[in-house]
Amino acid sequence: MLGIMQDQPLLISSVLAHAARHHADTEIVSRTVEGSIHRYTYADAHRRAGRLARALGALGVGFSDRVGTLAWNGYRHFELYYGISGIGAVMHTINPRLHPEQIAWIANHAEDKLLFFDLTFLPIIEAVAPHMRTCKGFVAMTDRAHMPASSKVAGLLCYEDLLERESDGFEWPTFDENTASSLCYTSGTTGNPKGALYTHRSTILHAYASALPDTLDCSARDAILPVVPMFHVNAWGLAYSCPLVGAKLVFPGPQLDGKSLHDLFETEKVTFSAGVPTVWQGLLAYVKQNNLRFSTLSRTVIGGSSCPPAMIKAFQDDYGVRVLHAWGMTEMSPLGTVCNLKTKHLGLTKDEQFGIEVTQGRAVYGVDMKIVGDDGQELPWDGKSFGNLLVRGPWVVKGYFKGEGGDPLVDGWFPTGDVATISPDGFMTITDRSKDVIKSGGEWISSIDLENIAVAHPAVLQAAVIGVAHPKWDERPLLIVVRKPGAQVTREELLGFYDGKIAKWWLPDDVVFTDAIPLGATGKMLKTKLREQFGSHRLPTA
Amino acid sequence: MLGIMQDQPLLISSVLAHAARHHADTEIVSRTVEGSIHRYTYADAHRRAGRLARALGALGVGFSDRVGTLAWNGYRHFELYYGISGIGAVMHTINPRLHPEQIAWIANHAEDKLLFFDLTFLPIIEAVAPHMRTCKGFVAMTDRAHMPASSKVAGLLCYEDLLERESDGFEWPTFDENTASSLCYTSGTTGNPKGALYTHRSTILHAYASALPDTLDCSARDAILPVVPMFHVNAWGLAYSCPLVGAKLVFPGPQLDGKSLHDLFETEKVTFSAGVPTVWQGLLAYVKQNNLRFSTLSRTVIGGSSCPPAMIKAFQDDYGVRVLHAWGMTEMSPLGTVCNLKTKHLGLTKDEQFGIEVTQGRAVYGVDMKIVGDDGQELPWDGKSFGNLLVRGPWVVKGYFKGEGGDPLVDGWFPTGDVATISPDGFMTITDRSKDVIKSGGEWISSIDLENIAVAHPAVLQAAVIGVAHPKWDERPLLIVVRKPGAQVTREELLGFYDGKIAKWWLPDDVVFTDAIPLGATGKMLKTKLREQFGSHRLPTA
Q1: Do B202 and A5 touch (CB under 8 A)?
Q2: Which residue, of A146, A266, A416, B131, has the greatest Cβ tally within 10 A?
């Protein structure tokens, strides 16, 4: 027997409509590509997203058509999120840091019908346009005054012109909540990128869950600045959860350096921010150098890659900014776990609490997780056993766009490719990527643990650990280090630094020094490249 | 085109499973009917709910069968919530304060197959059992030691015996999320009660929304005591939102007097509570009389009926407990709006903030609301226009069990029967029930506004205002007052008390004094009775 509740599909358009009605004058502030500050309100954004929806229709974009964007975090990008998904088309965010060849490949694979771009990326557009097989138009996200005088791209369209032609009062259509809403390709380190195809339902459920007090804790008393790009899994969902709760939104545009971010934090009274460790490194350095404080910033979520404990300490102890250590992935919309203490932890010492805060935290309700050994058997939540992490839930993918990569699920669970431990209280710690974990004599060694210790050394700027072939143990860890400018440190000093911090058999067998560690398009260390470069390093123990 | 996300139905069983896994040792504390304190954990509750599910099966309860409960807030009632709904049967909570005839009528209408009851209610069970046409068994929610030695009810079953027979490790079945999960009859003031039939989907969506920072703000650092009964719309959803976030649960059992509640608040370090104004009246009186404080209670949600501003002030100013003024109804699962300030209000004076805090607040995302005039035309959100309040959303009913009362919707909107204003910022204020609003010369007068002013008078214990027939104005307000014990106040003094507080034409035309105002089963004033009693009162102005 079915219940007798209203049949209201969960649709993305309703989020912005709610914000426009209940938070009509709440601001959205953007640093534009041109450098100036643009401000308007949720009511304005909703009105303009409606005009955009009409404009898309006029350009021939229909239900389920894909529309690409190559853009920074800004108000026009935000309008595209709602205008495109709102008519049942698919918002396809593309990472502009990818190689132009990859961008063309992705846009062709997605069969994007239109491509919207920030002027910054005109050179990329000019490079890829001739290779785009499905794209019928390129729209510069600017006004007539800033349109390029001439361009190699024929028939370039102007965003503001499109909106100006349309009228207000668009009525958002209603359709199945399982309709595809947006598409984000994973920057796979092997093989071609694969597209995660979100639904309206998965997006709304994720938005509810991500705003909860023990997730990102978003309310109408927050001003939220997503540093994490809108082309990285929808700015970790903040593009939806902020209007859902009526938080003020602050978009940093292209300027992600420490000074630009700190200025915006202060002038716009930002209370909460979100980003990857590499961005925070720049911010913290700038703030320290200039002896500055954060007047309103109370917390920040750090994810994307494992956050060094030293960074958590710096934010919390030096600046009074609470760090929410989080974990997720493109295939998870992206949130899986966030670290927030329980009542039982409130009486602990600061150090004991810190021991919990460095974990990636507890699963948000909606995400189930488990760890399994190589044999697929579930491992206990004892904080020690580490195994492959699997997840399931309504905002986890069950496959990729066009069936690429086949069926990834194992008995209904999605294998994350991460290796983790889980404590009896449900706090999860990523110990490694499955492909990066070092398998020494049948036991596993966490490359991340070894890296975190190395970067805590005052002379170390960056550190990576990879497994290198060993005749007796199969693999042994090799520590790869980039020293801070001017800093001196020897192999022996670094190995000695591990004393008492790890089990003896985890100690790297050797250290190599290098000038730079290669990073991928999302700022993560490219261990594949490191393995190419140092995989044949001859260990002194071999 | 559909997206490619996992097809995971939103099921109630998954909430408790999540709590058992992530908050295994978090406590559920109950004051039992016998008076002692019972404590166990989410892991225990989950294990026992599974045994209960097996026991229900053994007793012949199948998918969609209704199972009634007549019980206080306690751990066994909590287990029933999950054990019954978890197997796809329907949890039917019955208000034990109803007249036994009504209880029998409701149980027969619902076709309850079993009835679980707390021992307190054995006399009711004995009275109604002979009239129950579908009920095949009565289960006393107690252990063997406390079972009544003899009873008029044949074959009385013992809850703990049922569970003892079963084994652990029950696997919750998966089914359509639109399956009926629970049933709650509205205590309609006219006609027979009508059943709101919730779904697993509506329950989970409501649980997500109700735990948000701007709703009830529930986290794993809370200890939550629902005073609001589990037979009142699932304790306003707290029976689901607490395990969803891993909050400690404290159940007060039958003892809702000021002392019992305050003792529990203190010993169990309660941070958050929920209840109707009449309960808080008793608590505040006790705390004041004994010169006590609240050591851990930081906030309380007050709803069920409009909260007198004086009560909000007492909690906030005298005891530092923040009041979340809320509004909802059985047909809304129940939450519609909750009052939480926005950033723009944080700079206001305390008095200005108070002017917002007395409103019922903003709609939670998921609930759309609008106000319309008698002609059905939407009225502006200007904080002045008041009209009939309509709502819609995925946790709002579209009809009643067995089609009772026909189709209540108006163009897809549910008419709440309340009259309200909405401010430009989306803050809603209930000014009256549609049937209680006083229609004077074509204009509306809010009976609630007039009552709130009257109860602020130091000599007034209770006050009600009804419309009384008037030859010229159709209706005019009559103030009905219960004086505090020993207090003296005249008609003229009370009417003078309105000076400067309302528009002149709102002034009641007369005052009558009475000994008691009749209350319904949910603690609300029964204006129908008052109209019977005083409707023919001859106004001096007539």
Answers
A1: yes
A2: A416
Suggest the residue from A6, A186, A240 to mutate for an interface test with chain B (most B CBs closer than 10 A).
A6
DSSP at A413: B
Residue of A nearest to B391 (CA): A6
Does the annotation mark B472 as catalytic?
A: no
> A195 to chain B: nearest residue by CA?
B4
Residue A220 has its nearest CB partner, among B208, B211, B340, at B340
User: Which of B219, B248, B342 is facing A214, going by the closest CB pair?
Assistant: B219
Instruction: Report the gap between the CA of B478 and the closest CA in chain A (Å).
Output: 36
Among all chains, which residue has been given the structure tokens 């056993």? A385
CA A416 to chain centroid, in Å, comes to: 15
CB within 8 Å: A208 and B208: yes
What per-residue string of b and e applies to B298-333 under the rule 16 or more CB within 10 Å gives b?
ebbbbbbbbbbbebbebbbeebebbbbbbbbbbbbb
Q: Which of A259, A370, A435, A439 is catalytic?
A: A439
Among candidates B182, B177, B187, which has minimal Cα distance to B197? B182
**Least CB–CB distance from B180: residue in A2, A209, A221:** A2
Give the closest of A223, A333, A341 to B343, CB-based.
A223
SS (H, E, C) A283-321: HHHHHHHCCCCCCCCCEEEECCCCCCHHHHHHHHHHHCC
Contacts of B425 in chain A (CB under 8 A): 22-25
Cross-chain Cβ contact B22/A201 below 8 Å: no
Distance CA A264, CA B340 (A): 26
Q: What is the DSSP track for A34-47?
A: TS-EEEEEHHHHHH
Nearest to A208 by CA among A248, A244, A246: A244
Q: How far apart are CA A278 and CA A17, in angstroms?
A: 35
* Dist. CA A530–CA A528, nearest whole Å: 5
- Residues of chain B with C-beta less than 8 angstroms from the C-beta of A219: 212-214, 340
Question: Chain A residue closest to B240 (CA)?
Answer: A365
* Residue that the structure tokens 């012109």 belong to: A161
Q: Is B331 assigned a catalytic role?
A: yes
Q: Are A524 and A518 in contact (CB under 8 A)?
A: no
Which residue among the candidates A327, A395, A444, A473 is catalytic per the annotation? A444
Residue B2 DSSP one-character state = B
pTM of the model: 0.92
Please indicate whether, in this complex, the C-beta atoms of B397 and A343 are within 8 angstroms of each other: no
Chain A and chain B share a number of CB contacts under 8 A equal to 224
Choose the mutation target among B2, B4, B18, B413 for the interface with A, i.e. most A CBs under 10 Å: B4
Judge contact between A466 and A480, C-beta under 8 A.
yes
Tokens 């560690």 label which residue?
A: A517
Q: Is A327 a catalytic residue?
A: no
Task: Look up residue A23 and give its two tokens.
Answer: 């938070």
Instruction: Print pLDDT tens along chain B (542 aa).
Output: 999 999 999 999 999 999 999 999 999 999 999 889 999 999 999 999 999 999 999 999 999 999 999 999 999 999 999 999 999 999 999 999 888 999 999 999 999 999 999 999 999 999 999 999 999 999 999 999 999 988 889 889 999 999 999 999 999 999 999 999 999 998 655 578 899 999 999 999 999 999 999 999 999 999 999 999 999 999 999 999 999 999 999 999 999 999 999 999 999 999 999 998 888 999 999 999 999 999 999 999 998 777 888 899 999 999 999 999 999 999 999 999 999 999 999 999 999 999 999 999 999 999 999 999 988 999 999 999 989 999 999 999 999 999 998 999 999 999 999 999 999 999 999 988 888 889 888 788 889 889 989 999 999 999 999 999 998 888 999 999 999 999 999 999 999 999 998 888 899 999 999 999 998 876 778 888 999 999 899 999 88
Query: Identity (one letter) of the amino acid at A342?
Result: K
State in Å, rounded, how far the first CA of chain A is from the last one: 68
